[in-house]
Amino acid sequence: MVQLHYLTVHDNDGFVGTLDAAELANPRSDVVVVHTQGGHELFVPVKALTEEADGTLRLDRLQMAGEAAGMGGNEEGVIPRIEETAQVHTDVQTVACTCIAKQVHTQTVEIDEPLGHDVVEVKRVPVNKVIDKSPGLRVDGDTTIVPILEERLVKVLVLKEEVHITRRREERRQAREVTLRREEAVVQRLPGRTESTESL
């Protein structure tokens, strides 16, 4: 089986197709066939092909068009039809960025709130009453009564006095300055590079 050797053909825009090396080596052939990637056949004058150092062939499309236009007389000429297509590529670039910073502000305000406190009033109440047994501690409303006892020589128990302890609730207003803090967001747009661009 004969193995075919194909050469790569390219132009300034990139890959064009492949060419049978045996066809190019035929000295009687002025036109060769390049098989494009899309499955088409492109008839190219041999003079429009230049061998590169890497073994590939460069196609000079201007010379190709000139060679095709110069064919006349009884010779059959082939004028290739060339078509360029546009490819759109979308890239994302950063063109701006947003910087958000927080700032803390303080302010002094005056508050005036009622403050409550307990006041204890102690009052001694003389009784001097003979009793049979200790009455013990008792509570009358907001007043706590503590009995004070005394024994006398006749061995009688005398309620000498009572200590009345009364607790009452009082309120007074007190103004005071306090420092309050609050945060503020500062948004700053900085030059950057984020946007969607299209290139042909």
Can you describe this structure in just a few lines?
With 200 residues, this protein is mainly beta.
Molecular structure report:
It contains two helices and ten strands. It folds into two domains: 6-70, no CATH class; 90-200, no CATH class. It has a six-stranded mixed beta sheet with strand order 4-3-2-1-6-5. The protein has a four-stranded antiparallel beta sheet with strand order 7-10-9-8, with no helix packed on it. The chain is rod-shaped and about 160 Å long. The two termini are 46 Å apart. With 200 residues, the protein is mainly beta. The protein has helices at residues 21-25, 61-70, and strands spanning 6-11, 14-20, 31-36, 41-45, 49-51, 57-59, 89-131, 138-140, 143-151, 157-199.
Write the layout of secondary structure elements.
Layout: E1 6-11, E2 14-20, H1 21-25, E3 31-36, E4 41-45, E5 49-51, E6 57-59, H2 61-70, E7 89-131, E8 138-140, E9 143-151, E10 157-199
Parallel strand pairs: 1-6
Antiparallel strand pairs: 1-2, 2-3, 3-4, 5-6, 7-10, 8-9, 9-10
